[in-house]
């Protein structure tokens, strides 16, 4: 493997181009393992950025892509439709709440968030409420790295340096009431006040339900979502849930919103959607939202990605969604949750640890300081477990098929990292 070309010319995510940190040369992957060029293998404890939840190279997904590639690899979705998009829609409609039934496919999670934000604003425009042209979001939220998605993410998070470039939205303090704690109604007060004061300017509120990802790794009480749904209805504001990281089982429920039994007006999905094989996402709206947009204002929704509903990606995603009925992912995730809670409990007593959080197939150790990249790589290779800490979080989101002995290796590696 020609790693000099990589080091001199390839710019990796969240890394400098000059003197970049070391990378692992991957040559193949199967199940929970990534095989490296030097012959070693790593357990993928973060599902390759949370998407390979069924494991790598699932034969069902690969067969679907291979079969589709012999028929139609791509066709524009304007003026055409095709079998994989229809088949995927059929599979999704079996899983989605009946209220969410208008599916707009996008290239990636960030683009799905951009679409959802545009839908909300075009919805209000079509109703003649043109002043409702901003959104509200939560501090601690993360919705992606494109301009519109960054603007809806925590303004004090990783995108701070781009603040001059971003549209200005409203932000409420993030939820603090823990998932398994007694609910404190004061937790919703900041959002309630924000909506009381600015509802005439707000088209929608966007939130990651129950679990805030890359800007907080925060797991919060489901009651917040119930209060949010009621408040949005009272203030004539749409509700958008970003289920890109949490959808399709990651929190132990099919969707994280199911913990609160709440349904939004628009939902974004991605990551697990295509089983970690090809990039695909969607913004899914209620029929009411799509009808208002279609019948008022300019009629057509003003967005159209070139690779929207790519047939190969749709074929992969349909197979990935079908897998949710092919094995007991729910029991796997809940067993993993119990094991990670038990094995990570002792990390709470470490001097450098501020908190330990576990929900479903998500485990987070919040530390005072992340070890150096060299130390991280040393522990990764020692334990044979791929972890990629960032911010102040050592986290794991293993594939749903990860066996108990491999979960133990993951928690051992996390605890050693937490030691510093």
Keywords:
single chain; 420 residues; alpha/beta; Aspartate Aminotransferase, domain 1; Aspartate Aminotransferase, domain 2; 2 domains; 7-stranded mixed sheet; 4-stranded mixed sheet; 13 helices; globular
Tell me what you see in this structure:
The chain has 420 residues and is of the alpha/beta class. It has two domains: 3-57 and 328-419, Alpha-Beta Complex (Aspartate Aminotransferase, domain 1); 63-323, Type I PLP-dependent aspartate aminotransferase-like (Major domain) (Aspartate Aminotransferase, domain 2). The chain contains 13 helices and 16 strands. The strands form four sheets. Strands 4-12-11-10-7-5-6 form a seven-stranded mixed beta sheet, sandwiched between helices. A four-stranded mixed beta sheet has the order 1-2-3-15. Strands 13-14-16 form a three-stranded antiparallel beta sheet, with helices on one face.
Which CATH first-tier class of the largest domain would you pick? Alpha Beta
Strand order of the largest sheet: 4-12-11-10-7-5-6
Provide the CATH architecture of the largest domain.
3-Layer(aba) Sandwich
Task: Give the full name of the CATH homologous superfamily of the largest domain.
Answer: Type I PLP-dependent aspartate aminotransferase-like (Major domain)
What is the tally of helical segments? Answer: 13
Low-confidence runs (pLDDT<50, min 5 residues)? none
Overall strand count: 16
Taking all Cα atoms into account, the compactness measure Rg is: 21 Å
Sheet with most strands: 7 strands, mixed
State the CATH topology of the largest domain: Aspartate Aminotransferase, domain 2
Count structural domains.
2
